[in-house]
Amino acid sequence: MIWRNIASNFLTLAIVLLIGAAAAVAWAKREFSGPGPSAVAQCVQIAPGASLNAVSNQLAAQGAISNAYIFRAGADYMDKARDLKFGSFLMPPRASMEQIVETVTAGGPSTCGTEVVVRVGVRENTVLLRDTNPETGAYEEVARWNPAVGERPAPIVAAQEQPGVRLSLVMAEGVTSWQVVEALKAADFLTGEVAQTPAEGSLAPDTYLLERGADRNAILAQMASRQAAILAQEWEARPFGMPYDTPEEALIMASIVEKETGQAAERPQVASVFVNRLRQGMRLQTDPTVIYGVTNGQGILDRGLRRSELDTTTPYNTYRIDGLPPTPIANPGRAAIRAALNPDETDYLYFVADGTGGHAFSRTLEEHNAAVARWREIERRQGLPADSPVQTAD
């Protein structure tokens, strides 16, 4: 009889324990998947090589999660415990632990925290300090510095030394290799002297994540490798019959297209004009190449071309030479390379600014002259000198 009572009590206890365990599991699942404790957006920063244990304790300490153990158990159950990605990730208010695990293991660009951005622009280089507004979750500019003007602001100096700060370089389409090197020189958290400016056109416009102490030459090599890969891919996919003998000639054309229009939709049309002119033996007659011959890609001209510059025969004066100039005149992006190799099928031989930021395209000299007359009137109304060079039938 006593053994029957013991067995009965043991069975009852086992059932209670099972019910309790089931309830605990259900509670843990609700905690893991339900709304989190933070009423405001949280910036979750994952250090390189951080362990799940360290990250879970960090999140609990900053109030992003309610229980570090449940966070670890949930990440393990999702088979993501070893998938943490370095970066800073903005979590919305009441983000669940499940949502946080998904975000910090998916990776991608950082979306919050402090960042120093070196921007290589067509007109100027700038260094920006940005930080996340915890209320809006948006990046806000804290300080801005033009390396060509004045001393580096103290907030930027201090931010560069902060652990966890995100460092990056954003290279715009159409900048020259000299401009890129100057921007890298201004990033004093980098190391290494650049002995020689890379070949024009050889660097890929893109965003590059940087590390404190990284070598400038290694960064340039990464840019060059990326551009070489892009050019090879686009060259391989080119249609038959393009008027280029080598990928380098296509890159030259892409750089001209990049500098001629700031409107992405126009690139294939602009490319079609130049390709048509090449096929008919007409000179390209494009201002950006002449300007490059004047500046050597070191800064912007910031004035109109002089008649003497247009009348002087140089390797880059496409009003005076036949065919393409000897090198690219900037670093084109993938879209411009693709446009140079896949131009629109048009009969256009001319284009001129139309006053809206775009261009008017023409098939005949008569149409072109009418478009030029309209542009001259716009120049007159705006008080601009009405003597900018235009394409002719040469």
TrEMBL record:
This is Endolytic murein transglycosylase. PANTHER family: ENDOLYTIC MUREIN TRANSGLYCOSYLASE. InterPro entries: MLTG-like. The record marks E260 as: Important for catalytic activity. Keywords: Cell inner membrane, Cell membrane, Cell wall biogenesis/degradation, Lyase, Membrane, Transmembrane, Transmembrane helix. Its EC number is 4.2.2.29. The lineage of its organism: Bacteria, Pseudomonadati, Pseudomonadota, Alphaproteobacteria, Rhodobacterales. GO terms for molecular function: lytic endotransglycosylase activity. Belongs to the transglycosylase MltG family. It catalyses: a peptidoglycan chain = a peptidoglycan chain with N-acetyl-1,6-anhydromuramyl-[peptide] at the reducing end + a peptidoglycan chain with N-acetylglucosamine at the non-reducing end. GO terms for cellular component: plasma membrane. It comes from Paracoccus hibiscisoli. It is an enzyme of class 4 (lyase). Functions as a peptidoglycan terminase that cleaves nascent peptidoglycan strands endolytically to terminate their elongation. GO terms for biological process: cell wall organization; peptidoglycan biosynthetic process. CDD domains: MltG_like (cd08010).
